[in-house]
Design goal:
This protein has about 260 residues and is mainly α. It is built from ten helices and two strands, in the order H-H-H-H-E-E-H-H-H-H-H-H. The protein has one domain. The protein has a two-stranded antiparallel sheet. It is globular and about 55 Å long. The protein starts with a helix and ends with a helix.
Amino acid sequence: MLSYFVICLVALSVSALTLFSGFGLGTLLMPAFAIFFPLPVAIAATAVVHLANNIFKVVLVGKKADWKVVLRFALPAAIAAMLGAWLLNELSVLPPLLSYSLGNSVYEIDIIELVIGLLIIAFAFLDILPRFQNISFDRKYLPVGGILSGFFGGLSGIQGALRSAFLIKSGLDKEAFIGTGTVSAVIVDFARLIVYGISFYTLKIATISEDVYGLVIAAIIAAFIGSLIGLRLVKKVTIRVIQLIVGVMLILVGIGIVSGLI
């Protein structure tokens, strides 16, 4: 029951706060899943919830998407996401880099944990440091932004921060930015889920899938509710406040993963 409480609480609250920020759900929900499951499973489970919630958001705001931007940004992102997901599966089978004892417990640090933990910390600084708030990109760099955000989305489940950094300075108004980002996220989620699914069957981890299924369904429902709540909160909560909250939490989670505590 603890796993249901933690994951549903994170899905609901973060989905509500980040409906219009363009990122946050996957970055915080993945570590919540990682508390109860191996990292590759946590990332894939998060991708399912992320996809379902983004489809729901497409229904709400997708009609405002700029499809020219979607094609230039999301298609390269989808290809790069598949590469990132493949690399995740390759890294996940490597032996631990080191282990250490803390009290009566032994903790191991895997290369996948080190990579993902450092990525989480790096993306957190994109959210909280003022010097990164003015990052802007010309539209001609949209394919590059798609490749970067898609690759890291496939590798770590984190893509929203880079996606928003590229799209928000691409001449889109608020509604087009929200719709374009949501549609792009759905395309990338579909791409990486294909790789995750194939790899998971290959690794024969179906023995733990039943536990994951229940949590994923519960998290999807909680995220839907959160998105609806977000529609009411968006006028009261600034994106900057959300970025600071998410950034601080990501740093703490990233340190936990890098150290092997999570």
